[in-house]
Amino acid sequence: MLAETLAAIRPADQRALAEARAHQDRLTKPRGSLGALEDVAIRLAGAAGACPPPMPSPAALAIFAADHGVHARGVSPWPQEVTVQMVANFLSGGAVANAFAAQAGVPVTVVDVGVAADLPDAPGLVKRKIAYGTADLSRGPAMTVDQAVRALEAGIVVARGLVAEGARCLIAGDMGIANTTASAALVSVFTGKDPAEVTGRGTGIDDDTHKRKVAVVREALHVNGLSHDEPQPAGSSPSEALRALAAVGGFEHAAIAGFILCGAAARVPVILDGVIAGAGALAAAALDPATTDHCVAGHRSAEPGHAATLDHLRLRPLIDLEMRLGEGTGALLAHPMVCAAVRMMHDVATFDAAGVTEKPV
Ligand SMILES: O=C(O)c1ccc[n+]([C@@H]2O[C@H](COP(=O)([O-])O)[C@@H](O)[C@H]2O)c1
Ligand SMILES: Cc1cc2nc[nH]c2cc1C
C-alpha cells in the first residue's frame, strides 16, 4: 500500500502553476496585494493540476494519538496518561481542537495508532494501534521498520477513507505526551540542524529539563547511528528515511507521514499543523520530495524545530500566533484562509470583465 501510494504522487503541474500566476495578475486588484494568499492559491492550482483549483472544502481533521517510551527519561512535565485522557476529551467534544473544528465546520476523527491503554469503541474513534507506545528512542530504535510501515499505512487508510467520504482538504493533528522529543530528533536528522537548535520546551519545561531533553535527543541520534551532520538527503534513499523515521519517530509521526503521502497521491491538499505534523511532513518529503507540493503550512508553532522544518520544506506559514498546542488547532484556524484564497481564483472578476482600467505600464 505504501509503494502504491508513493507511485501515485506527482509534483506540482507546471502548466497549472503558470496559468494560475497569469490569472492572478488579471484579477481586479493590484498585483501581489494579497501577499501570501496569492502564493497559496497558485500552490493549490499546481497541486491539483487545474486552474482554478477545486475548493479545498469540505475539510476533515484526523488527530493521530500515541505514546512514547522516551517519556521515561523525564522529557515532559505531564504524566503519560494525559494522552489517553485527551483522546477521551476529543471524543466527547471537549478539547480545543473540537472548538476550533466546530468553528471551521470540520469533522474530527481520532486515530489510536499507539496509545498505552486500551480504548473502548466510540463514534469518531479509529482503532489502528500498532503497540502500547514506542520503545525509548534514546536506548535504541523507537519502532521496528515493520511497525513504522504499519503506522504509515494506518495514516494512508484514514486519509483514503476521509477522501472517499468527500473530504477535499485533509488536516493532520496529533496528541502524544513526550512527542516533541521525538519531533526534535526527526527534525534534527532530516534538516541537519543540531539538537540544541531544534529541541524546544514542548508543553512547558524548566531550564534543567530542557538541558536533559537536548541530551536525550543527542543520545537518540548516537545510539541509532544517525547524525544531524549527515541529514537524510530528501528522497535520495527512501529506505534510509524509513529507518530514521522508525528509529527516532513516534507512531503518530509515521501515521501523519502516511496521511500526507495519501493526500498528495489523491491530489487533495493537506494543511499542516505544528512541529509534530511538520516532522511527519519531513519524513514524507524524504520518502518523496514531491509530497511537499501538496502541503500548506497552516501556522508556525512556537517550538523552535518547527521554524527549521518549514525553512527546510520551503513552506511559508499562514499564521503565527505563538501557538504550541498541536491537535491540528493551527491548521484548523488556517483552513478558512486557504478556502478564501481559492475562492478568490473562482469569483474575482478580471480587469477586462469588470471594465476596470489597468495600471499603465
Ligand atoms: O504542535 C506543536 O507545535 C506542539 C508544540 C508543543 C506541544 N505540543 C503538544 O504537546 C504534547 C507534547 O508535548 P511534550 O512536552 O509532552 O513533548 C503533544 O500532545 C503535542 O500535541 C504541540
Ligand atoms: C492538557 C493537554 C492538552 C494537549 N493537547 C495536545 N497536547 C496536549 C498536552 C496537554 C498536557
Automatic annotation (TrEMBL):
<dbReference type="InterPro" id="IPR023195">
    <property type="entry name" value="Nict_dMeBzImd_PRibTrfase_N"/>
</dbReference>
<keyword id="KW-0328">Glycosyltransferase</keyword>
<keyword id="KW-0169">Cobalamin biosynthesis</keyword>
<dbReference type="InterPro" id="IPR036087">
    <property type="entry name" value="Nict_dMeBzImd_PRibTrfase_sf"/>
</dbReference>
<keyword id="KW-0808">Transferase</keyword>
<comment type="function">
    <text>Catalyzes the synthesis of alpha-ribazole-5'-phosphate from nicotinate mononucleotide (NAMN) and 5,6-dimethylbenzimidazole (DMB).</text>
</comment>
<dbReference type="Pfam" id="PF02277">
    <property type="entry name" value="DBI_PRT"/>
</dbReference>
<comment type="similarity">
    <text>Belongs to the CobT family.</text>
</comment>
<dbReference type="GO" id="GO:0009236">
    <property type="term" value="P:cobalamin biosynthetic process"/>
</dbReference>
<comment type="pathway">
    <text>Nucleoside biosynthesis; alpha-ribazole biosynthesis; alpha-ribazole from 5,6-dimethylbenzimidazole: step 1/2.</text>
</comment>
<protein>
    <recommendedName>
        <fullName>Nicotinate-nucleotide--dimethylbenzimidazole phosphoribosyltransferase</fullName>
        <ecNumber>2.4.2.21</ecNumber>
    </recommendedName>
</protein>
<dbReference type="GO" id="GO:0008939">
    <property type="term" value="F:nicotinate-nucleotide-dimethylbenzimidazole phosphoribosyltransferase activity"/>
</dbReference>
<feature type="active site" description="Proton acceptor">
    <location>
        <position position="327"/>
    </location>
</feature>
<dbReference type="InterPro" id="IPR017846">
    <property type="entry name" value="Nict_dMeBzImd_PRibTrfase_bact"/>
</dbReference>
<dbReference type="InterPro" id="IPR003200">
    <property type="entry name" value="Nict_dMeBzImd_PRibTrfase"/>
</dbReference>
